[in-house]
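Subject: Interface between my chains keeps coming out wrong

I've been trying for a while to get a sensible model of this assembly. When I model each chain on its own everything looks fine, but I need the whole thing in one frame so I can look at the contacts. Pasting all components below, labels as-is. Any help appreciated, I'm running out of ideas.
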Amino acid sequence: MWDFPLFPSQASTNAAKVDALMLFEIGVLVFFTMLICILILGFAVRYRRGKAADRSNPPTHSLSMEVVWIAVPMALSLVMYAWSTRIFFDLFSPPADAAQIDVVGKQWMWYIQHPQGRSETNELHVPLGRPMKLNMTSQDVIHSFYIPDFRIKQDVLPGRYTSLWFEPTKVGEYNLFCAEYCGTNHSIMIGKVFVMEPADYEAWLSEKGVGPSQAEEGERLFVQHHCAGCHRDSQTVHAPKLEGVYGRPVPIQEGKDVRFVTADDRYIRDSILLPKNEVVAGYEAIMPSFKDQISEPDLLKIIAYIKSIANRETSQ
Amino acid sequence: MNAAAHARHDDGPPTDYLSDTSVASWLLTTDHKRVGILYLISVTLFFLVGGVIAGLMRLELMTPKGDVFSTPDTYNRMFTMHGVIMIFFFLVPSIPAVLGNFLIPLMIGARDLAFPKINLLSWYVYIIGGVMGIWILIHGGVDTGWTFYTPFSTMYSNTMVVTAAVAVFITGFSSILTGLNFIVTVHTMRAPGMTWFRLPLFVWSQYATALIMVLGTPVLAISVILVALERFFGFGIFDPRLGGDPILFQHLFWFYSHPAVYIMVLPGFAVVSEIIPCFSRRPIFGYRFIAFASVAIAIFGFLVWGHHMFVSGQSMYAGAVFSILSFLVAIPSAIKVFNWTATLYKGSLRFDTPMLYALGFIGLFTIGGLTGLMVASLAIDVHVHDTYFIVAHFHYIMVGGTTMAYLGGIHFWWPKISGRMYSEIWGKLSALLVFVGFNLTFFPQFLLGYLGMPRRYFEYRPEFQVLNVMSTAGASILAVGFLLPLFYLGMSLRRPRDAGPNPWGATGLEWQIESPPTTHNFHEPVLVTCGPYMYSPEEAEREYASQHVHHA
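Reply #2:
Try treating it as a single job with all components included. I did that and got this:
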């Protein structure tokens, strides 16, 4: 209980990069703090009242010195800026082959859904050495998904999808915190991240028997909520088919103009909950809203299903 | 008619501004010095309330489990009230409303502020907001945090969010009125010869602060009113289920609240820029650079609000822009620190209480500012955002910086305000305790934050305990440091007036008149013929030698 760490462990590819920059900035901080302290203490000793010293013509200004102490902090700032922005852009540009995991935050727990079908609460199992992308949303207030040992954090917002990726580099158990204040039990909205050997991870995924995948679950919900009735083979209702739609631009009628929107997670989610907002050109705004009828995890499953048919030909 | 009134007044013997002791004369005063005293008493009371809450929170955090407050809700309400009270009722008004009100007219050779009645009104507005704040505290509190983030504040919190929003809204007007008054006063009330570049740097900084107060506070008012409207009517401004955007609130809120950090710390610069030349007996180094740095900070301050949202889901390009702008604010801050330090060179230094506070300020502000570079760095901010690293950083700037400067200023001008000297030994002890206690309280929090302890946690993982115990121990030292001045400054009031007009041998106009000043400040029209800080270190040495000749 009284162990006393001063630096968190480095358990992702991002952690070592952030720590290197941090050490550089600590160096800058120590240097300037010491410089100011030594100058103040030095002057305090040398120019203490009553102590003999040369006090003739104290300078009242010096343009060259001002320029120096503007230019040096400016140059150091630019170095820090370029360095940190580089790491940041990498952190928010996931590699194309990253495996996807869905996360839903709610007061006060984390719900996590693996694409292969297994879901878990307040625990996140991931394989060592594989880039993982988290697709996250919240069911109520703003939360923030934070794994200190990975040096990553991203707010989790209601009504919106945010994402985060990482590549674990060390097998072990790590804290998962909610960092954005979210109400009464904010401080116990805590989880654990388990980084496992890839083989152990595969075994863990199928531990409870191989169930339906997330996309299969999504297809079941698609039928259950009567989406299929209109969006598949309806003879009576004129609704766009969804095969091959995901990730492509769709035309939206706006007055006399048509604008294009990419059919991504955000668009599909809004089309289910706020269907009148962005109606595909050539269709009437007749779809009812499914607001408060489909839970956040189920929405993610339906999106997974629509994504799984992204490469199928439209049946029309 | 006015002329007649003045003539009658001038016939009587000049009386100091404290001589009329009736309650009515205080509550109806339009004397800027008396309004300053009203603020002094009220911000001190709020500081005590906010401080007691802080102490209880630190006790709670001494162990990983909740054991002081019965429920996490109580803790959440406490940290909200600590933030609201300390920011809106102590830090924002402290230096401008107490020292600014008292000193600006004296420093520019004016009889009063431009709008004396509005000045009194601003205090009443502040008190109404403050009484509401205390009422909320007694009747259950608010659990949203001082930031009132939506949609938690608009849809999920069951506490007195609307009342708190109204209290903050009302208090904001006090800030706006004070700011307006200062701007107009500095533009129109300067004595003949008091050109812009002969203004004391205190006035420059207060002027820059006033600009932020007037331009920024209305945005805060709008944000809290939108929160109230959303709670009452569910307009869907912030509610994503109705197509609203919860992040919109953060943009509005930080558009005020980031510049507000400079409302708190620019006045600190103001005080330090007066104390250091006086106790070094030499002109301040780089006067114009310090003056323009204040204005630059006020302007840049409005362009960096997005750095509070690096992990909120805003675009990474927006993050990159806000990051570089945040780095830029560091430059004018660095200019000031280096210029103050250079002012010590070839000075004739005395280390009285105000000087100790001012030097302590430089140390704490340097650490606070440099850790600000870490927070401006996108990749590091991702990790430390919403952790104790941030808590430590902004306490170093706002509490370390502002409070050290405020106490330094109170000690510096106390002889002028009260006519009394205080015990120098106790004063030095308080400066030392505050400095040591502060570092012991907040330095461990940098480590806690980098280790990953999130802020606003009622309970925490056991591995964080050692550092939390250190922090709580520091807080108890800090508390003693803060309480001491209350006693020895209070005690000094019981002594006869012994300060004289200019106990520090300072050069500002405020030191040319009696302590405490008369009601109408100056007996004769003031004519200014030179800049501030006309000190000479060599002359100071000669004086010193002649006083200490017997010891030789």
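Reply #3:
Confirming on my end. The domain at 7-46+62-211 of chain A is CATH 2.60.40.420 (Immunoglobulin-like).
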